[in-house]
């Protein structure tokens, strides 16, 4: 810009604001076009001492409006994707709530109690290994390191726990699997 920055800025604003606003509206629509153009002029004002654009000012202004408009469109896309994901998640939650009648809820509670009881019957170390594996999603090697036992011992405890649970809950195996999945989440 020239020496008389304020006067030059006013001149540029009067000359280009309307056409840049029209250009921004064609890119982002009416709602955010004014913000885009105003942001470009604010940037121009803030960096006027550092800019030496001369005859290229028009190109710079259009490019700046275009770039800011793309940023607005990207932000819209991210926001709409987030909203869609949130809406979908809420719909699934509501569907899950609708699936269970009061009777099913009571039955699930009873099943949960049976499962907790069966887990509680396991020997202490076996129960600890099982809970670390299923409730904390730890791998056998991680459990072995945490409890200072061998991986083979962890595997043996897991085998014993699963065998006990299968025997103890064989009459409700499919329901137990569903509940176990819900319980462990």
Main attributes of the structure:
185 residues, mainly alpha, 82% helix, elongated
Account of the 3D structure:
- It is a single chain.
- This protein is mostly helical and 185 residues long.
- Helices cover 82% and strands 0% of the residues.
- The chain has helices spanning 5-28, 30-46, 57-99, 102-120, 124-134, 140-147, 151-168, 173-183.
- Helix 1 runs antiparallel to helix 2, helix 5 crosses helix 7 and helix 6 packs across helix 7.
- It is elongated, with a radius of gyration of 32 Å.
- The two termini are 62 Å apart.
- The mean pLDDT is 81.
The Cα radius of gyration reads 32 Å
Topology order in helix (H) and strand (E) letters: HHHHHHHH
Helix/strand/pairing class, anyone?
mainly alpha
Question: Unreliable segments (pLDDT under 50, ≥5 consecutive)?
Answer: none
Q: Hey, roughly how much beta strand do the residues contain?
A: under 5%
What average pLDDT do the residues reach?
81
- Give the terminus-to-terminus CA distance: 62 Å
The main β sheet shows up as:
none
Give the count of helical stretches: 8
> Rough shape?
elongated
Helical proportion, percent range: over 70%
Q: Say how many strands there are.
A: 0
């Amino acid at each position: 810009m020239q020496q008389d920055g304020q006067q030059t800025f006013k001149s540029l604003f009067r000359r280009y604001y309307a056409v840049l606003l029209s250009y921004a509206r064609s890119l982002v629509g009416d709602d955010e076009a004014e913000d885009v153009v105003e942001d470009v002029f604010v940037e121009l004002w803030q960096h006027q001492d550092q800019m030496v654009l001369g005859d290229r000012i028009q190109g710079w202004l259009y490019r700046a409006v275009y770039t800011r408009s793309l940023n607005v469109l990207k932000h819209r896309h991210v926001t709409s994707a987030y909203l869609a994901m949130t809406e979908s998640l809420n719909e699934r939650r509501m569907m899950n709530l609708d699936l269970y009648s009061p009777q099913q809820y009571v039955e699930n509670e009873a099943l949960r109690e049976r499962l907790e009881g069966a887990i509680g019957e396991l020997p202490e170390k076996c129960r600890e290994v099982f809970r670390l594996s299923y409730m904390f999603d730890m791998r056998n090697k991680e459990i072995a390191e945490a409890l200072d036992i061998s991986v083979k011992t962890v595997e043996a405890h897991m085998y014993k726990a699963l065998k006990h649970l299968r025997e103890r809950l064989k009459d409700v195996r499919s329901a137990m699997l569903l509940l176990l999945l819900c319980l462990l989440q």
